[in-house]
Every structure is written in C-alpha cells, then in structure tokens.
Amino acid sequence: MKIEMITLRELRMRLKTPFETSFGVTQERRILLVELAADGVSGWGEITSLESPLFNSETTDTAWHVISDYIAPVLIGKEVSTATELPALLAGFRGHEMAKAGVENALWDAEAQQKGVPLHTLLRGSRQEIVCGVSLGIRETPQHLVVKVREELESGYQRIKLKVKPGKDVAFVAAVRKEFPEILLSVDANSAYELKDAPHLRKLDEFRLLMIEQPLQWDEIHSHAKLQALINTPICLDECITNARHAQTAIELAACRIINIKLGRVGGHTSARQVHDVCREHGIPVWCGGMLESGIGRAHNIAMSTQPGFTLPGDVSASQRYWAEDVIEPEVEVSRSGTIRVPQTPGLGFRVKRNFIERLTCRSRTWTATRAVVSA
User: Fold this and answer.
1) Quick check: 66 pLDDT over 70?
2) Cβ pair 227, 195 in contact under 8 A
3) Are 41 and 107 in contact (CB under 8 A)?
4) Which among 61, 145, 211, 356 could bridge 236 via Cys, Cβ 3.0 to 4.6 Å?
5) How many CB atoms lie within 10 A of CB 81?
6) CA dist., res. 322 & res. 26, Å (int)
C-alpha cells in the first residue's frame, strides 16, 4: 500500500451535557480526524487527545504540531505491506501515542477496505456483538447521581462507572449501591488520590466494586502495587499503561488486576493488540475505555473490543448520549440488553458523513507526495 494522501482536520463538537471528571468539566470537544488515502482507498482515524494536558501530556495542538511537522512528512509516499509496519516507521519519535494512533488507525481502516473485510476481522476479533457499560461524570449530589444511574440502567447498560474525586466519592458510591445492590459497579478516579489516602480508599471495599480505576498518579505503577496490597477492590490501570512493556511491568508488580485499553493512549491498534496479548497470557481481563470520541473513534473502539481478552463491558456507549448528531451513519446504538452489534461491511463498517465533517471543520491540512495544502 502506498500512502498517497493524509488530511488532518480539526472539528468543534459540543457535548449534549457537560462531563465532569476529577480534572475538570468538558463541554466542547476539539476533535482531530485523520483521513489517509492508500492505493485510492480512504481510511479514517481519530486523535483522542484532550484540549489541555490533563489526561496525559498530549493536547489537540501538540498532536496537530507533531503530525504536521514529523509524522505526515515521514509517511507520505511510503509503501507498506500492512498497517502493522507504521509503528516501526514512527519509532524514532518518542511519545505522542495519540497522534500516532490517529494516523495508524486510519491505515488499518484503509487496509481492511482494500482486503474487503471488516476491521474487526483484520484485528483477529471474533465477537459479533460487544457488551457496553457507561461512564458517568461527577454529579452535584448523591441523589442526582442515583437518578442518572437509574436512567442509564433503563437504557440497558451492563456496567455503571462513576467518576470520583476527594469529597465526592464514598457517599456517592454508597447511595448508588444502596439503591442498586446487584449492579456491576466501578469507579474511576483519574489520578485524584495519593498513596497516603489508602485508609480512605479502603472504605470503598464494602461496596463490592468491580474495580477502582487509576486512583493514583498517571505514572506511578509502583505506588499502585503498594495500594493494591492494602485494599481488596481490584485496581484497574489506565493512564499508567501506554504499551505492552508497561502492562508486563504492572502485572509482574501486582499493581493491578484489570487493565483498561484505550486505543489512543497506547498508540493505535498494533500496540493495543500487544497489550491485549500480554494481559490474556497472564489472565488479566481488559476492557475498552473511552475519550469522548466522535463516531469514528467509537467505531475503532468497537472493532478492537471484539478481541477475546475484552471480557468486561467497556465505555463504548451510544452516539446519542454525547452528540446531537454524529459524524457517521448509522450512528452507534446500544440495544436494550446493553450490547452493540459489530458491523460486517469492509473497514470501519460505518459511512463517514463527509459533508457534515466539512461543515464542522475549523482548520485542515493535506499532504500528498508532492505538496502540502493548509486551509484555515
């Protein structure tokens, strides 16, 4: 496959409702989409970085810079046999996993289309449907949270995840567990606590949680190992794991019992499969986390989640939970039993709404083998 064209677009998309985590409130997303043409076929990927360096060190603007000045110039005109060759071509650039993932995943889509197979088949996935959970932002009161949980359960979601932070944790979880004693329930701290908070975090043990996700700092695998030895609730690592080596280290140190795989965070489908394989070898369940993606990122998450190690409900929820209108059709829908059917057409399995994307685009840049074009 010859990489003939790369187009980078920035879109502005407003969430239907604000989403609050321990590091802030998100209302509008600056979303970067990558379109990559190889041998006349266009594939699409999404860069899942946030607007500010709060989840990791990447941002919308750093991703634009790194792709514009480094990744696109290296890749344009290159011949590759499969998308799995891209990480080696970009290995000299340290970090910037989300920028790399957006480009690599677009090539995976193009390759699947060229081979006439669904993306999940190219990824060795076998599931015909995936099970879905939902992630709920921090609410004003426990009572407000209970109301929202009931609403999501009625929509069919099989796992409820609550964002927590100091001051909005134990009482909120207690209220939900009291109202819904049998549901699959987890919490996500997004690095809001320190190891000295272990006695407080131990209070969560009584609520029979599936997991507590990333309670400590984003780069503290060793501290998570110490915390896991002090609490009964399984720790799930998210921000700490950016490649298979980190996953191996975390498993050997007993720093977690579950790992969340986010495509952008680990650098794309090739690395995600490697993390998946390491976890499966050691009996560590994985699931797919979300980053408030548009439908293009969501479609890639669906394909990834069909692999056998994804045994827990992920954060791949319906388009309509977030957007008044999504950039794909049909939009992602969740059944009343909390599942998503995996599309069976070649590539992503969803049609990209190019005209709608163009209306939302505030800047773009295109590279071909002979020139780059910038549009404000």
Assistant:
1) yes
2) yes
3) no
4) 211
5) 8
6) 11
- Report pTM: 0.94
Contacts of 30 (CB under 8 A, 6+ apart): 10, 11, 12, 51, 60
- Whether omega for the bond prior to residue 330 falls within 30 degrees of 0, making it cis, is yes
Structure tokens at 20: 């609050």
pLDDT of residue 19: 76
All structural domains of the chain, each given as residue ranges with its CATH number in brackets, are 3-116+352-375 (3.30.390.10), 121-348 (3.20.20.120)
Q: Is the pLDDT of residue 341 over 80?
A: yes
Q: Contact at 8 Å (CB) between 133 and 299?
A: no
Supply the DSSP string of 310-336, one letter for each residue: B-S-BS---GGGT-SS-SEESPP---T
Q: Which residues are catalytic?
A: 163, 262
* Separate counts of helices (H) and strands (E) for the chain: 14, 16
**Euclidean distance between CA atoms 106 and 166, whole angstroms:** 39
239-277 confidence digits (pLDDT tens): 999 999 999 999 999 999 999 999 999 999 999 999 999
Closest CA to 309 of 354, 344, 274: 274
Mention every residue, 6+ apart, whose C-beta is less than 8 A from residue 104: 45, 83, 86, 87, 267, 268, 269, 270
**pLDDT tens digits, residue range 201-228?**
999 999 999 999 999 999 999 999 999 9
CA angle, 311 as apex, 305 and 316 as ends, to 5°?
A: 40
Contact indicator for 33, 45 with CB cutoff of 8 Å: yes
Alpha helical stretches, state H, 180-294: 198-201, 221-228, 244-252, 263-266, 269-281
- Write the pLDDT tens digit of every residue in 272-312: 999 999 999 999 999 999 999 999 999 999 999 999 999 99
For 102, the token pair is 């957006």
Contact 182, 158 (CB under 8 A): no
